[in-house]
Structures are given as structure tokens and as C-alpha cells.
């Protein structure tokens, strides 16, 4: 049986990926689920698994190549299968595309231009990739095809000379595409090119704030007992995995999501997709930007297992060894900035999810109890949720359940 390995889509707005390293050579045996390659997306490095076993018969793309999502990049087949259709060695679009990872949402449709006749394109040729193919984004390529614009005659203004949508639109209008440059301020200024990851973060967060009507609920959680239990587990229980405050928050969130499943959902194509699996994402700061991979099957993990999974996930995120499901399968996010001495965080939902919990640091604070002034370990939390899916009353119940669990932390061990 012939199995086509395609460039997977790691998120709704991913359009292409770069092959960092092939971990299999032509002729090697491959088992189902075995890691065969590492790719770089605009937010992280991810490992690709084989979906079928067999012989790694042919690679259709080289290390360093940037390939459109859905393009066939390798062939796995039995030794006697006829793969002559792939003998030219060039990567080509799968028909239909079958991404390896579940899509986090639908792609934006290409915008329709108002011009009925294609305009004269710029005369300077666009840069080509190693295989002679003009380097252009999928959106630009689709727009050029719809309006009969020759990509080879366009000068790209994207990263590394890549043709982007604005270049095609400028060609259609008969002009030369340029990057907008604001008027210089007094004194010296430096223009800093945004990394692919930072561009993606900017695009997705703008999309979230533009499309999702956020509402916010905040509550102070008394972490005195939770901190006491955490110290006991870390100091007194031999062999128990070390537990952090964030591990306890993730555990409480997973339990609460099981009771309030409306917050364990995606909003895609004007529909709510409620998930049975609870995969809590944790925000991890990298030098290039912030990512939030998921702890898979969080609800069925103990507090200690969540601690182990969190450390493993952070380590692999920094070394570029995330799995596709960890990158795309999250259903809820916890973003904790307490370790930076921050008191509170009002976070932005990462689409297509419908809620995120922002967490500040635990601080010693005076409180009044039974008419007496005492000190308590308080932590500010803020739930940001999509008002298309839930309302404030539901959000209050969900956040109060998280508070109840953290203020009675023995329940996290059950």
C-alpha cells in the first residue's frame, strides 16, 4: 500500500513549513507512528510521524525546502509497490490534501479583487526556490491564478524576497509593490523585521480580538493551603514528582472543564465544537515568542503526572521536538506569568479555543478573617472567554469551581 506523507497543517493559519531534517533514508523500514522528519512552522519545530508502516521509498523534498501545506513530501510503500508516478522527485500537491494533524479551524478565503482585467505585472523577476519554483505564499499564488497574473514577473517584498498578497495586488493595479514606511521620528530609528513566529502571534491575536467578543471575570484565590500541600509533596513525599503552582492550576482547570464542558470547545465556521478530550495548553516563553502546546488527556493525569508532562513539554518545545497533536489539539489554555513577579494577566483567547485563564503571582496579602487581620497567600486569576459560546454567569461558575478546588487542594490528589 502506498502512503503519501504530506506537509501537515499545524494550525488554521499555517500555510507552509520547512523541512529541517529527514530522520529516515530511502530504503529504511518504517513503522506506523515512528518519527520520520522534523519540520519548522512559523511558531515551533514539530516532529512528523508515519501514519502507515512500510519502506521509506522516496523523499520528494530536501532538507531546507519550504513546502506548502498539503504537498506530498515523501512516499512510504511496500517494496514491490509501483511508485513510478513519483519518479520525477518533485514535491506536488496531494489530491485531496490530507493533513496529518487536525486543523484548528478553517483558512481564510482568498479575497476577491475588484479589477476585471489583469494589469501589467512588474518586470523584475521573482526569486525562485532550489527547484526553480517561484517563491510565493499560497494566498498570493491563488490570487495570481484567479486573475491570470504571472508570478515570475513580480518582485516579492515578503521575507527573503517571497511574493505575498500585496505584491500580486500591486501588480494587478499596475504599480510597484512597496513596504509602507512611516515618517521618521526625531533621532535615529531602527526597523526590526518580525520573525515568522512573531508575525503569526500578531496575526492570530489580532484575529482573536477582532472576531471573538471577549468577556472577563477575575477572582482572587487563596493559595495558602495549596502552597502548604505543595511544599509537603515536594519535601516530605519521597519519590513523588515535584509539583509547581502551575501544575495545580492545570489540574484544577482540567477537573473544572469536565464539569463545565462549554469551556472545552472550539468555535469554527460559526459552530461550536465541544470536545470530549481535555487537552490543557500551557504558555511557554521562547526567545522567538510565546507558544502554548497542550498536555494531552490532561483530565486523566494525576497531579504528579501533570508535573512530569509539563516539564517534558517545556523541554521539547525549546528543543524543537513537539508532536503535531500537542501543537494543534489544545482545548483550553492556562497562561501563568506569576514567575515574573506580575500581579495579574488579562489574556487573549488563542483561536479556535473559546477560553483562556490568565494567572498572576502568589503574594502574601493581609486579609480580614473573623474580625482579625491575618495574612494569606493570594493569587489573582482572570478568565477570558468568548461570549458567542458562553456568558458571564457560566464563566463565574467555572472560575469559582477552579477556586474551590485550589482552596481545598486535597481534591487535586483524588
Describe what you observe in this structure.
The protein is globular. It folds into three domains: 3-93, OB fold (Dihydrolipoamide Acetyltransferase, E2P) (Beta Barrel), CATH 2.40.50; 108-179, E3-binding domain (Dihydrolipoamide Transferase), CATH 4.10.320.10; 198-413, Chloramphenicol Acetyltransferase (2-Layer Sandwich). With 414 residues, it is of the alpha+beta class. The relative contact order is 0.12. It is 24% helix and 25% strand. The strands form five sheets. The chain has a six-stranded mixed sheet with strand order 10-19-18-17-13-16. Strands 1, 3, 6, 8 and 9 form a five-stranded antiparallel sheet that branches. The longest helix has 17 residues, at 303-319. Helix 1 (138-146) runs parallel beside helix 2, helix 5 crosses helix 6 (303-319) and helix 5 (245-259) crosses helix 8 (392-407). It has helices at residues 138-146, 165-173, 196-211, 224-236, 245-259, 303-319, 324-328, 392-407, and strands at 3-6, 16-22, 29-30, 35-40, 45-49, 54-59, 66-68, 71-77, 92-93, 214-222, 265-268, 271-274, 280-282, 284-286, 289-291, 294-295, 332-336, 355-369, 372-386. The protein contains eight helices and 19 strands.
